[in-house]
Amino acid sequence: MCRAVDLQRAVLAKNEAAAQILRTELSARGTTVVNLLSSPGSGKTALLERELRLAGERGVSAAALTADLATENDARRLARSGAPVKQVLTDGLCHLEADMVARHLHDWLPESTRLLFVENVGNLVCPAGYDLGESLRVVLASVTEGEDKPLKYPTAFGLAQLVIVTKTDMAEAAEFDEAAFRAHVQQVNPGVEIVLSSVRDGRGAGALLDRALAVAEGNRVHTPVMARAGA
Amino acid sequence: MHEMSLAVAVVDQVETVARSRGAVGVSSIELEVGELAGVVADALAFCFELACAGTVVEGAELITRTVPGTARCARCAEVWAVGMPPLLLCPGCGAAADELVSGRELRIREVRWADPESGEARRTDAEVPREHRQPITEES
Fold it and tell me: Chain A residue with minimal CA distance to B4?
């Protein structure tokens, strides 16, 4: 006789439960998590360096967890802002999971931290499926990557609560078609805000910090259609 | 490639359920994978073979069912196939979809095993048609 169990269980149930616990624990102590996703080289670290420095100037306690397959280069760069920074080495793993984040926060994250920025592994496929306990998910794309990036990586862009276009000082040289990029984002994630940024010319300085603080203060955040899933 | 993490998660969950019910082997696992779940079925099948080695799940057939992405517009009462890349704007009125009805599933739907008490465990396991197993490709 053959037995069957109608399981109906999410494959990532364990990660989702861990993410929910982390979100609850951190928000209880006043910490809001921001998850940053992009391809390698889109400028996550440069953007974070600027926003962490601004946070310091404004007296907002912010910290950063930065993930890479190898090297501590990003942590060294981010530490120049003066904010507490920790490097996560994933040893080849292409994404972060909630329990990895929780493990690294233990005994490190200062109690008073208002904003914790998590710089995910540079990858637009795998990290999209993993909730890290964040309250704001941000996806970056630089002007050199092509206007169709949101269509090529629809799940990553489709689940973003904020999209940041980086390196806009190079937009003209890269012949970046902003209208086409906006239309493609709109197709996979109608209504999501798009911020233009350049760390070279200062465009969009503080925008990420402002959005993160708004979420920390309990303001309503964009809910992507893809996150409103009947599935 | 996060399919290895997913395969391990599938094996862990199925192993827990199977053990708690006294199963000595698993004959098949049925997965629902949405078009927008960001999962490559072939890569998952390849990783599954590795992840289940030495566990109670070893030898189980992995059946993957792809779930097409569909979205709904409340105003037009319309449900459409979103396609790939997905269109989440209503083809009727152009407004944002109200929800993604399907397409992000990544769910273990059903697990089957031979009942050890019936004494047919071995036979049932042997009955798993090998030709239905997921292909393993080098590219994965």
Answer: A93
